[in-house]
């Protein structure tokens, strides 16, 4: 975990350094001038779930995002999604359904010398909440000392709160169409204590056994003018 955190910090520092250098170059080549921020909403769709479904077919998750520039180079974000898990094994069955929401802000480290510069290097913070209901219709345990035991666990609810540090890059591939990636590190805050069953996968957070998961997400965005 320490190595992962070091890598994340290194990536943030590298991104920040590149952004500062690019910003200095922009200021040198072009005098930064005031311009009016045109109101817009940018809708994003996380396409990483497509790849995840290949190696984790039991997990289905849909995630979207909305953002708008409230001040120059400052973006307000609202993100959310739904999740479903279905796993049938010889010794157990598990299912869950849930949703998550995240909100926060990003700052564009690259800067905008003019209104036509739409590429972004982002650093941001999120507060997130997740809710799910899960159950195990049957399970079977075999122990050489205690013998065999089978049963079921009724449907129960599970809540999680956490904060995220995010860093990423976004570029305008075509007019109003953006492609980008976002690296996320999650720090748990509160969760359901002593649940009847530990969740296999927490919506928006990741695997339930991970204390501070780090993941990278690839998304496609479209900007709608207001």
What features would you highlight for this structure?
single chain, 226 residues, alpha+beta, Porin, eight-stranded antiparallel β-barrel, two-stranded antiparallel ribbon, 2 helices, 10 strands, 16% helix, elongated
Structure description:
There is one protein chain. The chain has a single domain (34-109, 124-225), classed as Porin (Beta Barrel). The chain has 2 helices and 10 strands; from the N terminus they run H-E-H-E-E-E-E-E-E-E-E-E. It has helices at residues 2-29, 48-55; strands at residues 40-46, 59-71, 74-88, 92-108, 120-143, 147-174, 177-191, 201-202, 206-207, 214-225. The strands form 2 sheets. The protein has an 8-stranded antiparallel β-barrel with strand order 1-2-3-4-5-6-7-10. Strands 8-9 form a two-stranded antiparallel ribbon. Strand 2 (59-71) and strand 3 form a beta hairpin.
Question: Terminal Cα separation, in Å?
Answer: 43 Å
Under the CATH scheme, the architecture is: Beta Barrel
Number of domains: 1
Topology order in helix (H) and strand (E) letters: HEHEEEEEEEEE
Spatially, the strands of the biggest sheet line up as: 1-2-3-4-5-6-7-10
Poorly predicted sequence stretches spanning 5 or more consecutive residues: 27-32
Short note summarizing the structure:
With 226 residues, the chain is an alpha+beta fold.
Give the secondary structure arrangement, pairings included:
Layout: H1 2-29, E1 40-46, H2 48-55, E2 59-71, E3 74-88, E4 92-108, E5 120-143, E6 147-174, E7 177-191, E8 201-202, E9 206-207, E10 214-225
Antiparallel strand pairs: 1-2, 1-10, 2-3, 3-4, 4-5, 5-6, 6-7, 7-10, 8-9
């Amino acid at each position: 975990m320490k190595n992962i955190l070091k890598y994340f910090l290194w990536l943030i520092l590298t991104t920040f350094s590149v952004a500062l250098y690019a910003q200095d170059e922009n200021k040198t080549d072009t005098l930064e001038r005031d311009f009016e921020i045109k109101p817009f909403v940018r809708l994003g769709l996380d396409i990483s779930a497509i790849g995840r479904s290949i190696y984790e077919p039991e997990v289905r998750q849909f995630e979207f995002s909305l953002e708008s520039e409230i001040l120059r180079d400052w973006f307000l974000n609202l993100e959310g999604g739904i999740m479903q898990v279905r796993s049938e094994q010889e010794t157990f069955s598990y299912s869950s359904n849930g949703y998550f929401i995240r909100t926060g802000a990003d700052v564009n480290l690259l800067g905008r010398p003019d209104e036509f510069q739409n590429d972004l290097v982002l650093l941001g913070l999120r507060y997130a909440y997740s809710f799910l209901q899960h159950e195990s219709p049957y399970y079977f345990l075999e122990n050489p000392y205690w013998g065999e035991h089978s049963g079921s666990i009724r449907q129960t609810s599970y809540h999680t709160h956490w904060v995220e540090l995010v860093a990423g890059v976004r570029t305008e591939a075509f007019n109003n169409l953006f492609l980008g990636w976002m690296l996320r590190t999650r720090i748990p805050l509160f969760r359901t204590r002593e649940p009847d069953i530990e969740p296999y996968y927490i919506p928006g957070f990741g695997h339930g056994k991970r204390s501070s998961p780090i993941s990278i997400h690839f998304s496609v965005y479209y900007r709608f003018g207001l």
